[in-house]
Write a structure and sequence with these properties.
Layout lengths: L2 H23 L2 H16 L8 H25 L21 H7 L2 H7 L4 H12 L4 H8 L3 H18 L7 H16 L3 H7 E10 L11 E2 L1 H17 L3 E7 L2 E7 L5 E10 L2 E8 L14 H15 L1
Parallel strand pairs: 1-6
Antiparallel strand pairs: 1-2, 3-4, 4-5, 5-6
Helix pairs in contact: 1-2, 1-3, 2-3, 3-7, 6-8, 7-8, 9-10, 10-11, 11-12
């Protein structure tokens, strides 16, 4: 195989390899590094695999497991709530499974995956999300097929136990999210309150490097009033709310007057209401979305604009 052919095959599989790595690592930057490391290992190898897809999937899985084992130590020392790096666009697409793939990359699903061991997580991703055969999974993680079946079964039980009993279908989510962001943009407290679950929580990941809402704001009344009180002054200082899919779910990107990213927001919707609102504000997790704003400065200007009108 010539290097040109080798590179062509790798680039064809890059979206899949990134999507595997991201679901294992919950980090865009670490997933991109894992994919690059996979290329370097293949480029320097004399192996001519029977299946390039299986071979590269195995390599990126092993690299991701190693990275995840190291990352878990850092995440245990993380300041405040830890959320995955927001993903706006999943490069791997399968029209017949688009909804399933989107749900597998949601903030809620990735946080459930955090409860699994690195091996359980890798096996679950390869089997349940991407449908790999157990012989390929066994080769990827260095365990027997029987062991991989046990790992997959254990992971499924953990994931099923953590999912909401009633999940909204995609169209229902989109319609409710449209109503939510319309009410948010207009600062309509009553409309927001109707769309929020009674015990809704709004939590942010600042990582100690950006302002965050402490341990979170809980309750429809509290969340609705906070959201409504922020939007008008945020717009007055030039802020903009760009509706986007965030981790396959309804969400938004908040930008300052220069178009820089302040934070992302993702909604968990089930049983006809918004259950959780998660914001990622840590600047270290936003660089892949675009140039990052100084969130503390934006907050100061927003608070001043709000106090000027009180």
């Amino acid at each position: 195989m010539t290097r040109t052919e080798q590179l062509r095959q790798f680039e064809e599989l890059r979206p899949l390899l990134f999507s595997i790595a991201y679901r294992i690592l919950s980090s865009v930057s670490e997933a991109e590094d894992a994919v690059q490391e996979t290329w370097l290992r293949w480029e320097s190898s004399e192996t001519t695999p029977d299946s390039v897809k299986a071979y590269l999937s195995a390599v990126v899985t092993r690299v991701s497991i190693n990275v995840l084992n190291s990352a878990k130590v850092r995440r245990e020392k993380y300041v405040g709530p830890w959320f995955p790096e927001p993903l706006l666009d999943d490069p791997f697409q399968d029209p017949e499974r688009s909804a399933e793939l989107a749900d597998s990359v949601s903030m809620a699903s990735l946080l459930l995956l955090e409860r699994l061991s690195a091996l359980e997580r890798a096996v679950f991703v390869l089997r349940e999300v991407f449908g790999y055969d157990y012989d390929d999974i066994a080769a990827a993680v260095g365990r027997s097929e029987a062991a991989c079946r046990q790992l997959a079964a254990r992971a499924r039980r953990h994931m099923d136990a953590g999912r909401p009993r009633f999940e909204a279908d995609r169209r229902e989510r989109e319609l409710l999210a449209d109503r939510f962001f319309d009410a948010f943009k207009h600062g309509q407290v009553e409309e927001l309150r109707e769309l929020l679950a009674a015990d809704v929580s709004m939590v942010s990941d600042g990582g100690g490097k950006a302002p965050q809402w402490g341990a979170g704001i809980v309750g429809a009344e509290n969340v609705a009033r906070l959201l409504a009180s922020l939007v008008a002054p945020f717009h007055r200082v030039g802020g903009a709310v760009e509706l986007r899919s965030v981790n396959g779910q309804p969400g938004a990107v908040f930008r300052d007057r220069d178009g820089k990213v302040v934070n992302t927001m993702a909604l968990d919707i089930a049983e006809g209401q918004v259950q959780t609102i998660r914001a990622v504000i840590n600047p270290d997790k936003l660089g892949h979305v675009g140039p990052v704003a100084d969130a503390r400065d934006v907050l100061r200007r927003t608070q001043k604009a709000r106090s000027d009108t009180d």
